[in-house]
Specification:
Number of strands: 12
Helix content: 25-40%
Oligomer: single chain
Radius of gyration: 24 Å
Distance between the termini: 32 Å
Structural class: alpha+beta
Order of helices and strands: EHEEEHHEEHEHEEHEEEHH
Number of helices: 8
Shape: globular
Length: 303
């Protein structure tokens, strides 16, 4: 329930569907496990899990969703080895060369033959829509995985007008570099101990720092050489820690123990009540963080 990453998308207009309307439209895309020769399956599951049936969990006009993604794991090396053996066999037995089109057909046959025996990997991708603040948040560090969920949602409900990640008036890389060079962070932010620095030139190098004092001389040397901060570990308002990237994607998100413990007084047996309360608390914090994040970089840019 507690997001570990955040990719934020700005809704360009009011989100007017009710949870009931969304439920009806999403039921056509329920998750179904991969078939024997199906390499990938993606569909909706109840975000609260267990015995629940609702595909949309609504709290304070925030709608929680969850997609399940299953993928067959078929190592490329296995396919290449079997393809090479098959090509060699044909060329020796038939005395002719196997060209590109036939190679592709052979490769597809090998993949279809191997898929029923392949292992599967399954992950849950959570998201929530804040219909009050017009944001959609996806718990994914991967742009491709987030886009898969967004495309699935579009297929179910029709149009979903979004801006890809927040658009701000000041360069996040330049602003974070200024923070680190001048030790002038916003009052509600503190430096943690990780960052990534990149030389902005075409063939520039990348320096990754972990577990070190970012205000020390070691980092200063790279900043003075012209490198810019493209990822920075931060602590926000004693509520959470995160790594903020230049595209304003948030990774390695960790909520403070004190915050996560606020709902511990609920009955242990009432799992649904715990999940409901945790989502209400988490979404309130994340929406607040998003609005604060925009202010750090000069406010939201006009579309």
């Amino acid at each position: 329930m507690w997001f570990k990453n955040v990719r934020a998308y700005r809704l360009t207009g009011p989100f007017e569907l009710t949870p009931e309307q969304m439920q009806e439209q999403m039921e056509a895309s329920l998750y179904r496990p991969c078939g024997k020769t199906q390499p990938l399956a993606l569909g909706w599951v109840p975000p609260l899990g267990g015995e629940t049936q609702a595909l949309v969990h609504a709290v304070n006009r925030r709608f929680l969703l969850c997609a399940r993604r299953e993928e067959k794991l078929l190592p490329a090396t296995v396919v290449r080895e079997q393809l090479a053996e098959k090509v060699e066999q044909i060329e020796q037995e038939q005395g002719r060369k196997v060209y590109r089109k036939e190679r592709l057909n052979l490769k597809e046959e090998i993949v279809q033959d191997c898929l029923p025996r392949a292992f599967s990997r399954s992950v849950l991708i959570y998201a929530y829509i804040d219909t009050r603040a017009n944001w959609l948040f996806v718990d994914s560090a991967s742009a491709n995985r987030a886009e898969e969920l967004l495309n699935l949602l579009r297929e179910c409900i029709g149009s979903l007008p979004l801006l890809l990640l927040p658009q701000v008036n000041q360069s996040p890389a330049a602003t974070m570099t200024h923070w680190l060079q001048n030790r002038t962070l916003p009052q509600d932010l503190e430096l943690a101990q990780d960052c990534e620095l990149r030389d902005p030139t075409e063939d520039g190098g990348v320096v990754r720092c972990r577990g070190i004092e970012l205000s020390g001389d070691e980092v200063d040397v790279h900043l003075q050489a012209g490198k810019q901060v493209v990822r920075l570990a931060l602590l926000w308002d004693e509520k959470l820690s995160m790594v903020l990237a230049e595209d304003l994607c948030i990774r390695r998100l960790r909520f403070a123990d004190e915050l996560m413990a606020e709902n511990e007084d609920l009955p242990e047996a009432d799992t649904a009540a715990h999940l409901d309360a945790d989502f209400a608390l988490m979404s309130e914090v994340l929406t607040g963080l998003q609005e604060r994040l925009l202010s750090w970089f000069g406010g939201e840019a006009a579309a």
